[in-house]
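[step 3/7] inverse_fold.run input=structure_tokens len=253
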């Protein structure tokens, strides 16, 4: 089964007219190098709504700058995307049960460089954008309502991004807990900052792939993270499909 067929299956055949463009086909586009990340845009329709999906993001720990890492987000906005759905595998601090879905209500990004450093791109957004509500409350309310109807248990919390690629130490997790983080990972905050800078409405969902360092009995391992996400991707996909359907009904697309 090809990657596109797996993606289509994960969305229960919701995505129609699939077309894929590898990142390497786009001039200047950073290339995903992480095992399990296909590294391409997938275009199609969900419930008649045009969507573009990043099948594999790029990360700071791959050697890219924060500006490089958000280039795909800026490109999607320039292509006309109004809503940005971000998902990630995360270590659980408050929520330790593997597979728990956590709606991101706020984030802590001081562990990584801002993608807005340097000359401001005035065509994209203001020099000093507000980050008082990065994750749209209305989108979170829609997601919670959809999750309830789908009988999907969903939590809400604060996400903290570390730089990686090493997993966090137990001391760093204790620090993150003191700062107010519920889940931690190595992506998402930079993309969310870029999206908010451009006025996109953002929904973020973390899937707890493991208890954070020092909070579980099993040493952290990338293979274990991938296995967990493969099990949970259908739950995430169904929820995303329902949120898109609700937005379609609200906006009469």
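[step 3/7] decode complete -> sequence:
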């Amino acid at each position: 089964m090809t990657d596109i067929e797996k993606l289509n299956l994960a969305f229960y055949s919701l995505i129609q007219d699939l077309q894929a463009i590898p990142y390497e086909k786009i001039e200047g586009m950073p290339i995903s190098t992480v095992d399990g990340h296909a590294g391409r845009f997938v275009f199609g329709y969900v419930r008649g709504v045009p969507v573009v999906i990043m099948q594999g993001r790029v990360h700071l720990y791959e050697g890219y700058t924060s500006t490089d890492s958000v280039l795909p987000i800026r490109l999607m906005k320039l292509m006309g995307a109004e809503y940005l759905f971000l998902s990630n595998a995360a270590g659980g601090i408050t929520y330790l049960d593997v597979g728990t879905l956590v709606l991101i209500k706020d984030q802590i990004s001081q562990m990584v460089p801002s993608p807005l450093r340097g000359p401001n791109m005035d065509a994209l957004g203001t020099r000093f954008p507000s980050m008082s509500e990065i994750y749209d409350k209305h989108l979170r309310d829609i997601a919670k309502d959809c999750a309830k109807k789908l009988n999907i248990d969903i939590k809400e919390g604060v996400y903290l991004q570390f730089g990686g690629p090493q997993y966090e130490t137990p001391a760093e997790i204790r620090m993150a807990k003191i700062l107010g983080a519920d889940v931690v990972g190595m992506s998402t905050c930079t993309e969310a900052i870029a999206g908010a800078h451009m006025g996109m409405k953002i929904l973020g969902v973390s899937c707890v792939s493991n208890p954070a360092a020092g909070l579980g009995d099993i040493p952290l391992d990338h293979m274990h993270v991938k296995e967990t996400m493969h099990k949970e991707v259908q739950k995430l996909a169904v929820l995303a499909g329902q949120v898109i359907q609700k937005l379609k009904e609200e906006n009469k697309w």
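[step 4/7] annotate
Helices lie at 3-10, 66-69, 71-78, 137-149, 170-179, 189-197, 222-251.
Confidence is low (pLDDT under 50) at residues 1-5.
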